[in-house]
Write a structure and sequence with these properties.
single chain; 304 residues; alpha/beta; Carbamate kinase; eight-stranded mixed β-sheet; 22% strand
């Protein structure tokens, strides 16, 4: 059955106030999960991002690529090792990480967006010292009255500083930045950084209107498995401490918290398996997934 002209018109009318509200505003999108693998979802993602650009928003993309890294490592005979969810990154692994993220994955996304008219430009955190990193330390509890053990996981970093000048220059010139989450250390060396954390730090440095995380789940859920439609930034720590958030949701929530505390208006954790999830979140009344607010005005607390 074809969609009636009236319904099509209503969709556009519903989007109008959002188009007006977000015109000229920066939106940082963390691209990852199934949306990066499925050809159908890749096309939908590119269409969403390019449409945003041409109706006046300023999208910035930060992408992951963990499965792609593991696949190349397997072909090279390098066995991936993970400690507390972090990939142990020695010199050989770092070479693969940078080759896959900055080379293969980044340029594939740039090509996809350009094919749809996006004028995308690929970067890593090493370009223009965009993402300055410091070494991440993992601490292992060894018992009461004993100091924790420090585990060396190699060239895994955390964001120390973001220098957004190169992004602002590109955006002012009409280009769409696509960023691989590889940072630069104090001696110019590369560091592997979680893409969620990079997205939140960049959103904060740009004072973005929104930061959006594409995931392979509906959003953040409570202890009963029910979706939170809204959360406050103050509730994130409680959700993590109580074990309500697990696995890959934890860095997303920590990233969102940092971004909101740095001045980003809203964070959204949405299901990237839904075609055009970005447009549904930004331009419709209902939205999708979980939105996280920096303040408490007009918010009714949901059950943890």
């Amino acid at each position: 059955m074809s969609i009636s002209k009236e319904i099509r018109a209503q969709v556009l009318i519903e989007a109008l106030p959002y188009l007006r509200k977000f015109y000229g505003k920066t939106v940082v999108i963390k691209y990852g999960g199934h949306a990066m693998v499925s050809p159908e979802l890749q096309e939908a993602f590119a269409q969403d991002v390019v449409l945003m650009k041409y109706v006046g928003l300023r999208p910035v993309i930060v992408h992951g690529g963990g499965p792609q890294i593991s696949k190349v490592m397997a072909k090279m005979g390098i066995k991936p090792i993970f400690i507390e969810g972090q990939r142990v990154t020695d010199e050989a692994t770092m070479s693969v990480v940078e080759m896959v993220l900055v080379g293969t994955v980044n340029k594939s996304i740039v090509g996809l967006l350009n094919r749809h008219g996006g004028q995308a430009v690929g970067l890593s955190g090493r370009d223009g010292d965009l993402v300055v990193a410091e070494k991440m330390k993992i601490y292992k509890y060894t018992g009461e009255d004993r100091p924790p053990e420090i585990i060396d996981i190699g060239r895994v970093g955390k964001v120390k500083e973001v220098n957004p000048g190169v992004l602002k220059t590109l955006m002012e010139a009409g280009f769409l930045p696509v960023i691989a989450p590889v940072g630069v250390g104090p001696d110019g060396e590369a560091f592997n950084i979680n893409a969620d954390l990079v997205a939140g730090a960049i959103a904060g440095a740009l004072k973005a209107e929104k930061v959006i995380y594409l995931t392979d789940v509906e959003g953040v859920k409570n202890s009963k498995g029910e979706l939170f439609s809204s959360l406050r930034v103050e509730e994130i720590e409680e959700i993590i401490e109580k074990g309500i958030a697990k696995g890959g949701m934890i860095p997303k929530l920590k990233s969102a918290r940092k971004a909101l505390l740095c001045g980003v208006k809203k964070a959204h954790i949405i299901d990237g398996r839904v075609p055009h999830a970005i447009l549904l979140e930004i331009f419709t009344d209902a939205g999708v997934g979980t939105e996280i607010l920096g303040g408490t005005d007009g918010f009714e607390k949901e059950t943890l």
